[in-house]
Amino acid sequence: MLTNNMTPDVVIVGSGVGGAAFARTIAPSNANIVILERGEQLTTPDTVLDPREIHRDGKYIADETWYEGDKAFSPWIYYFVGGNTKFFGAVTPRYRESDFEEVEHAGGVSPAWPFSYTELEPYYCQAEALFRVHGSDGADPCDPWRSSPYPHERVPDEPSIGKVRERLENSGITTHPTPLCSDEKWLDFAPITWDSYPNTGDKKADAENALLRDALKHENVTLVSDARVLRLNAAENGQEIVSLDVKHNGETKTIKPKWVVVSAGAVNSAALLLSSTDSNNPNGLANRSGMVGGNYMSHHCTFLMMVDPSEINDAVYQKTVSINEYYLGGGEGDLPLGHVQMCGKITPPMVQGIYSWLPEYPLRWLCSHSVDWFLVTEDLPVPDNRLTVDSGGRIRFNLERPNYSSHVQLVKNMREKFKAASYKWIFSKPFGINYPTHQCGTVRMGNDAAKSPIDQYCRSHDHPNLLVVDASMLPTSAAVNPALTVLAQSIRAGERWLTELG
Fold first, then answer.
1. Is 376 exposed, middle or buried (0-12, 13-18, 19+ CB in 10 A)?
2. Average pLDDT of every residue of the chain
């Protein structure tokens, strides 16, 4: 329970992977730590979850409206204890070693990070152990070096997917096992894919069961749900953050911590900072650089279905196969194109979530014969690619599509390769803005305070007691799910906080 004017040592805004990892890391300090989560805790469903409720009806999707220009849209986003990891598909790769360096793309340059892969590598090992990652050492041709093997053996292919892998390999396509923070025992929970389904057990690692649960074992750590932070307030000198205004149980209360850690996600962390204006910070907090909200990135993504009418695909969780032939090169001028992985098995309600007018019966036949893929290309940081908060508190986006030509080429190349493997029917659908995928970059790390809101340890250049630890901190998006990288960097930032405080 929150009380007005309470004075914890640390307040963490958000319980997703960044905030939960930071809380777990600093919990042994015995500092009084309060985690504020705007959502509620998920409860176990009474029945096996209906894909119609999940995909067609969006049962767990937040009731929220964002804007691109004047066009309103409802984002596919979640607000619960544990954040979006409660619903993500369990794919947990590392960024490639080159992702930390300057990389040329067809659409521009992906800049170097303020530190190298070598610096983060030990924390990747910790992150993989915490998230119980399953994988196969050396199988991915562009996998970065590692000082420790995967904690667990790869998740085996289901029989129908094993046949697909063999068919692709025989046609000359190099595949590898997908790193996953789940195993085949997820079926003990329900015969579902993880995508968009709530994880209320332990068959998949997520921010709540792998991180937050450990943090809360410490008596000095408290979680408060249904607690939405409205704004942060700086001291009269405009530097230290002295309080937060929090709406909890219908009442607005003021909390006065010594340290503030913002971890509300790439959109909401930036929106919170931008909304916290005062006479010393007219453009919002941590924003002397003008980069809060800028450099917004969300991967270029496409769903692709390849169909063979003569083959039944009865897999439930087909994400065990990935392809990285085009990750480091292969495009025009041998520039990178991106990552390819199987997505959760497509079902009729998933298709109806996009094309509501399609009847279910023929879709059942189509989906039973399809093998389904998720194609990802790196988005690039562009300062004017940004979100803002208007006078009414509405979140608005001004977006370009940097490097989208590389994604078009990736889709074209994979269609050709799959046709060469004798898949005659191929359908694809690019993601729209209402499916924000792997958002990041809006409060980017950097050594130069004139170009970045936070330093390489996630501490604000402008406010000595403010940190930001979530995907907003990432300087680049790479072309794979950022969850493991956010986890690793949040551990690194937490350890630095412990060191500084002695």
1. buried
2. 93
